[in-house]
Amino acid sequence: MRTNNNKKGSKTVDPIKSKREIQAVKNYLSGKNLRDCTLFIVGINSALRVSDILKLKWRDVFYETGEIKKEIRLIEKKTNKQKGFPINKSMQKSLLQYFECVNQPDNNEYIFKSRQGCNSPLSTKMAWKHGVPIETLMKILNHSSQSVTKRYIGVWPHSHQAKDFQ
């Protein structure tokens, strides 16, 4: 993952193009936080917007019998269109590992839930505040620069909120 400075001085991040780069990000995140690593793996394998990933519940991934589903089906928040995508081996391994780590939660719980409040989804702003790298959110959101992502999640460069996240 390379960062470049454009003419306006804001950073842009080149897309991850190789399996080696993807594996490097996975290795980095798995050593830091299993939730963030799982979020990244679901993001790169599903091509979902982060707002849709954060709304996923365990019932979207597992049948009531406890067996993992072959695909996830949902209604996209932005387009209101139905989308389905397969749960590949990488997603399956990460989701199962994370499921075990969070002590086999109820099917109605959000997969990436906030640590504040009971069973509410993690927001993009809170994902960043709790350590999900801005570059990861940029990739998931398909943004071209950190400033675009910060604006999207509601953190403005000169606000008191922005200082909390630097």
UniProtKB/TrEMBL annotation:
InterPro entries: DNA_brk_join_enz (IPR011010), Integrase-like_cat_sf (IPR013762), Integrase_catalytic (IPR002104), Tyrosine_recombinase_XerCD (IPR050090). The keyword Kinase does not apply. One of its GO terms (molecular function) is DNA binding. Keywords: DNA recombination. SUPFAM superfamilies: DNA breaking-rejoining enzymes. One of its GO terms (biological process) is DNA integration. The keyword DNA-binding does not apply. It comes from the Bacteria. Residues 11-166 form the Tyr recombinase domain. This is Phage integrase family protein. The lineage of its organism: Bacteria, Bacillati, Bacillota, Clostridia, Peptostreptococcales.
